[in-house]
Amino acid sequence: MNFLITAGLVCLAITGLLSGAFTTGYQQRGNFYADSKDDRASKKVVANGFFLAGLAFLAAAGIVYLFN
Q1: Contact yes or no for 60/53 (Cβ under 8 A)
Q2: What angle do CA 58, 59, 65 make, to 5 degrees?
Q3: Nearest-angstrom CA–CA distance, 51 and 15
Q4: How many other C-beta atoms are found inside a 10 Å radius of the C-beta of residue 65?
Q5: What is the number of domains present in the chain?
Q6: Residue 25, burial from CB neighbour count under 10 angstroms (0-12, 13-18, 19+)
Q7: Which DSSP string corresponds to 10-46?
Q8: Mean of the per-residue pLDDT values for the chain?
Q9: Which structural domain range is residue 35 located in?
Q10: pTM of the predicted model as reported, rounded to 2 decimal places
């Protein structure tokens, strides 16, 4: 169960890094204008995948916890 929780939190942290959630407004503005439209789209797709994987890992950890 600890592996599932750790994997879920790591996936959510990677999602935050790819989406720019841990940056200031000035950094977000700079990153927006520095990246091309295709780069932003590909980061969004990968971030959404990691988010869904993180939710799945945390849901699996919750189910394991309920059955133990």
Answers
A1: no
A2: 90
A3: 6
A4: 11
A5: 1
A6: exposed
A7: HHHHHHHHHHTTTS-HHHHHHHHHHS-HHHHHHHHHH
A8: 94
A9: 2-67
A10: 0.88
